[in-house]
Write a structure and sequence with these properties.
Number of helices: 4
Number of domains: 1
Number of strands: 0
Largest sheet: none
Helix content: 55-70%
Radius of gyration: 18 Å
Strand content: under 5%
Length: 123
């Protein structure tokens, strides 16, 4: 007699590569923040204050998004994409450094490549 198939518990295993990548994303968020602030042009009034504030908020959002993606939550993935796009725009305004877009976009593209075929794992 065949054994009945058991349903999965709903928890999807994170591979070692994905776990390491999430940790690298977290480290990257803080390194990018430091690099942006160190290459920032001199502040020109009040407009820079709110840009810096939003940049720090987007950095915190990346950290929270990594926790969400660690637990396979869809909101974590969406939050990561929004935070990366936000930091891209603000870094461009703060530093006038076009290459800043690339060091934000590369991890986003790698994340998308690593998650191809794994959309069903996200809640």
């Amino acid at each position: 007699m065949a054994k009945p198939k058991h349903k999965s518990s709903g928890k999807h295993k994170r591979g070692t590569g994905w776990s390491i990548w999430l940790i690298l994303i977290l480290i990257h968020a803080f390194v990018v923040t430091f690099a942006t602030f160190s290459s920032m042009k001199s502040p020109e009034g009040v407009t820079r204050d709110w840009l810096v504030t939003f940049f720090l908020i987007f950095t915190a959002a990346k950290a929270i998004a990594v926790l969400g993606m660690w637990n396979w939550k869809t909101w974590g993935l969406y939050m990561y994409v929004i935070a990366v796009l936000g930091t891209m725009g603000i870094a461009l305004v703060l530093t006038s450094f076009l290459w800043g877009i690339f060091y934000e976009a590369i991890p986003l593209l790698i994340t998308g490549w690593l998650l191809r075929g794994k959309q069903q794992y996200f809640d």
